[in-house]
């Protein structure tokens, strides 16, 4: 186990000391991938010591390697190994499973970073960011509206207002209308129930603020000179025109410009997150205020007195004005990455949510005004709000698709997923996830409150249930699942056929070994299955398009429906009515079941290492990116990890002038390593080699995030470091080649590596070798060869000494 309180570590020799000036020490800085790897596993030694860092993320060494810089003669053939362990940022205690409830926020934040490469289109880039931020704001409103639907409408208005429902729920007795207590008036019931969604908004604000302080408050390195004139942090490496490709389709060399991930403010979005946090908090409070005041104001305009009616109108006007200001704040300003922006808009982040909270307090006072004759009936006027939210999200997604397609056509790249539509597709999925989660909660709570009845079915029920649009949305879920079977069956058939075709190829690779049908079939199946990763984009696109069309149909069906809430098909014939009721009921249960399984799966993922590895890559891709669109998304671990790595590399190279450093990243660790290298000053970057293996840099990040990991940023990274090697396997479902193609022989990719190492039993490997896939790249002899090549490229290794160490003469030169 790692020591919790390590002994004092001897500092590396200062640059002025003779041993530092002439040391040939090489350092390998290991960065693990997903799955909660320990430093003992990374260093293959149970005795490790924390060199620098804390319990969340730290750099470790073997105990015997602590003072390696002082004894370079010990490390002539292999470098000193250091392990940067960042698993505490993502794989902590089981309570972090609650972050999965923020999944829609995380997904819409991903859409912000998926825009195509923009060449001279600053306004289009800004419009893209505005549209994504508006979609993110709509998700906050949707979540808060769903909480209002449950607490205000289903519980306080419907169930507490009906004797049959309130009798079954004894805890609602003091709110029951038939008891005639002080809380029995509908407005006072709504005022009390407003505490639930308001507390939810407050909890989201607290979590966002707390996680920022705990995970993302690390500042980048100081003293870096970044010259860029892009006010939005989105400039490209070219002028107004796209570079012409060469004869092989690769981009021609251009004037080097620091990529976005290398800008000093990229990993420090404090100002934007604070502004968005204030705006989203205000939007949540305003949504609760509108839900509370809406029903009371409608009653006052018909039956109430002039004082109450005036107060309700004034509160509604204040809510509308504050909502416009909130939208303007979200639209006005994006990220500023060219400098480390440490300022805060103090007045805005204080007065905007404060004003919204004050309006909520006024709405509560107005609702609690005595109205003895007011009786609750039917549902609250929230049906139109849910319809408008769904319609608005659909319009924003379509507009986002138009902007993204225009950006892509300016500089098309065939490797970009869905021809530039990856961002809109993922944004649509975020809206669908938000709808499923909120609708599922509303449907399940309504069914629980109604006892033996089923709200929304129209018979034998005590309460009307949630808005009819949620029932329509539930009814399209079985249709979507049936449609999803088509691409799934197609992929299964195609994978099986591909595996059969790979059989002769595999046997030829391992010739002249005797073929084994079972062994060949297993290797071929794993290779064919690993290739499914490249089919994911069009599957996601099909699901997103079907969701958009079916969602539009659900909204249209709810809009034209003249039936009571929850009935979607009465009067359309017995067969059609039965099918619609069956689809609605099935969809409702599927929503509830899916929500329960989702929460349970998230809890298991943070308790079970195998389950965590299964979903780890998707989760770590999502939380790698800063919170640029939604401030309530889970925290970005890279805003801590990237500055950590960059600081460690800068400090080591500064104190070891002749030292050689290889940063070695596996899987997601390769993305962190590349991002940290981009953050280094040019002089430091030229002294560093990069070794990646099982890397999703191009296969996932380059295709889904082309503006940041596309062909030109990766080409620039290759040219800015001293040397780079990338190892990959055909059996790896995550890693792949980085496809650097501009130089005549860049020599970056090494692969596909042979996996397994031996087909059958051999003299060198007498036992059956496993198929490693994405794991254990260091067991392959190619790993040691690639690392040795990098160290040789960085500089000559220390000559072997005849004596027991190095001796220096008075001139400072070393002699044997």
TrEMBL record:
<feature type="region of interest" description="Disordered">
    <location>
        <begin position="1"/>
        <end position="24"/>
    </location>
</feature>
<feature type="transmembrane region" description="Helical">
    <location>
        <begin position="389"/>
        <end position="409"/>
    </location>
</feature>
<keyword id="KW-1133">Transmembrane helix</keyword>
<feature type="transmembrane region" description="Helical">
    <location>
        <begin position="351"/>
        <end position="369"/>
    </location>
</feature>
<protein>
    <recommendedName>
        <fullName>Integral membrane protein</fullName>
    </recommendedName>
</protein>
<feature type="transmembrane region" description="Helical">
    <location>
        <begin position="97"/>
        <end position="115"/>
    </location>
</feature>
<feature type="compositionally biased region" description="Pro residues">
    <location>
        <begin position="1"/>
        <end position="16"/>
    </location>
</feature>
<feature type="transmembrane region" description="Helical">
    <location>
        <begin position="127"/>
        <end position="147"/>
    </location>
</feature>
<feature type="region of interest" description="Disordered">
    <location>
        <begin position="226"/>
        <end position="251"/>
    </location>
</feature>
<feature type="transmembrane region" description="Helical">
    <location>
        <begin position="309"/>
        <end position="330"/>
    </location>
</feature>
<feature type="transmembrane region" description="Helical">
    <location>
        <begin position="587"/>
        <end position="606"/>
    </location>
</feature>
<feature type="transmembrane region" description="Helical">
    <location>
        <begin position="190"/>
        <end position="207"/>
    </location>
</feature>
<keyword id="KW-0472">Membrane</keyword>
<feature type="transmembrane region" description="Helical">
    <location>
        <begin position="421"/>
        <end position="442"/>
    </location>
</feature>
<feature type="transmembrane region" description="Helical">
    <location>
        <begin position="278"/>
        <end position="297"/>
    </location>
</feature>
<keyword id="KW-0812">Transmembrane</keyword>
<feature type="transmembrane region" description="Helical">
    <location>
        <begin position="472"/>
        <end position="493"/>
    </location>
</feature>
<dbReference type="InterPro" id="IPR029058">
    <property type="entry name" value="AB_hydrolase_fold"/>
</dbReference>
<feature type="transmembrane region" description="Helical">
    <location>
        <begin position="535"/>
        <end position="560"/>
    </location>
</feature>
